[in-house]
Amino acid sequence: MLVYKFGGTSVGSVVNMNQVKDIIATRNRKIVVLSAMSGTTNALVEISTLVESGNVNTAKKCIETLNETYNSVVYDLLQDETLRQEVSNYVNARFRLLLEATSEPFSNLLHNTIVSNGELLSTFMFSRLLQQEGFSVRLLPALDFMRVDSHNEPDNFYIKQNLNRLIDAESPADIYITQGFICLDAEGQITNLQRGGSDYTATIIGAAIEADEVQIWTDIDGFHNNDPRYVNDTQALSHLSYDEAAELAYFGAKILHPQTVMPVRQLDIPLRLKNTMAPQAHGTLITNQIHGEGIKAIAAKDGITAIKIKSVRMLLAHGFLKKVFEVFERYETSIDMVTTSEIAVSLTIDNTTHLEAINEELKKFATVDIDEYMSIVCLVGNQIIYHPDTPELFQVLQDVTIRMIAYGGSNNNISLLVNTSDKLETLQKLQRYVFESGLVEV
Ligand code: ASP
Ligand code: MG
Questions:
Q1: What is the CATH number of the domain that holds 350?
Q2: Which among 45, 311, 428, 438 has most CB atoms closer than 10 A?
Q3: Mean pLDDT of 45-59
Q4: pLDDT tens digit string along 29-46?
Q5: CB of 191 within 8 A of CB of 16?
């Protein structure tokens, strides 16, 4: 069985939904995971924020506007009168519930309930489109099998049991449709896998059914060798290893949710990225195979905070690093980059929820400097640290202030910390040097 996941743009219009329908019209059995139509989750987050801040009337107006948009999509999508009526009833009922939600007291659960509507709507509409076109299709409600545990990690045993039970329960279908992103928490309440989490849903499902392949269909033809939002003439990469893809996704390549690679890497299930708007393009195939050597791709992650922690005793007393890391562990704050000198350690975090408390604790045994608005520029490629051309990149960047360098932590990654205001220049200089000089084959 295959798993296909289609992102917000892929289901973002009637034309694109029909394109998705054509893409999945192959003979293999498959589970199709869908995002919300593009823009919908953002609109729902906004509605939730309005409810939270007591702007109930504005929230209601937004809900009504969104309802109208969906009504016109339903009208264009379906020609069969019975199906059109069924979907229209479903859509209106969901929006009625949303309107009712605006008068409830605000809570995390209310927020999660509001934002879950995008995927519920898109999957219902799409499953009825397939039905209209004569496909053998069944809707699998994600909330009947997707669950995270008390650490917010996928509850793989539960997911596997329940998903397989649901698939086996009724007569088999060729295509199963389910919602990305949404799931239950350990208490059985509605939550989600964070923004962009539908990719993660797809690979969790892929692992649960031991799929032959997971395909993520989006609006770009795979991973690019640099960030196409900031750099011209980037190119799609045809192959990446799980490690390379995981690092690029984690360090800012927007195409994949950062956790996506993990479930399929463990079972060696190929992960393919494809472009809904150009299905014939090769895309990126992610497997355990290693292709090429040296710098292959660059990504950047913003919103990084650098923390320099200097031991108050001049020499790095033993146990100092342990004490430092224990503070971060206590506040469940993960560290991305680390460099040390004899008397200090510098590290970066991207989650500043507990920064104040962390700072207070560190100050008991160290002096602390905090710098915000930093970016990590991450260079990825097989054996990158051994490649003879790699050190030259520091000449190219001689005018850029590099705050930290992580070199050698893994053979496949070099990370540079720069001020976010220098990020664009860094990415562009690296692009010109690495890919245009022809030093490294893409
Ligand atoms: N709809 C959700 C979002 O916009 C999940 C996803 O698209 O992956 O974040
Ligand atoms: Mg996405």
A1: 3.30.2130.10
A2: 311
A3: 97
A4: 999 999 999 999 999 999
A5: no
How far, in Å, from the CA of 246 to the mean position of ligand 1? 19
The answer to whether 379 and 414 have CB atoms below 8 angstroms apart is: yes
Are 66 and 39 in contact, with CB atoms under 8 Å apart?
no
- Strands 297-311, 344-349: pairing is antiparallel
Query: Which numbered ligand comes closest to the C-alpha of 33?
Result: 1
Counting from 1 in the atom list of ligand 1, the atom nearest the Cα of 36 is 1
Average pLDDT, the chain: 94
**DSSP code for 37:** P
Burial of 208 (0-12, 13-18, 19+ CB in 10 A): buried
Which atom of ligand 1 sits closest to the CA of residue 193?
5
The one-letter amino acid at 77: L
From 173, 152, 197, 134, select the one nearest 5 (Cα to Cα): 197
Q: What is the pTM of this model?
A: 0.91
What the block records as the tokens of 372 is: 């915000």
Domain termination residue (choose one: 157, 186, 219): 219
The binding-site residues of ligand 1, defined as CB within 6 angstroms of any ligand atom, are 7-8, 35-36, 41, 118, 180-181, 195-198
Q: Of the residues 9, 35, 42, which should be mutated to test ligand 1's pocket, given the most ligand atoms within 8 Å of the CB?
A: 35
Tally of CA atoms within 13 A in the half-sphere of 120 that contains its CB: 21
List the one residue out of 241, 246, 231, 17 whose CA is nearest residue 129: 17
Instruction: For residues 214 and 203, give the distance between their C-alpha atoms in angstroms, rounded to a whole number.
Output: 7
Helix, strand or coil for residue 328? Answer: helix
- 268 lies in a domain? no
Domain span at residue 92?
2-219
Q: How far is the CA of 318 from the centre of ligand 2 (A)?
A: 44
Claim to verify: residue 172 and residue 308 sit in the same structural domain: no
Ligand nearest to the CA of 254: 2
Q: Note the pLDDT tens digit of each residue in 290-315.
A: 888 888 999 999 999 999 999 887 65
| Residue 227, H or E segment | none
Q: Is residue 254 part of a domain?
A: no
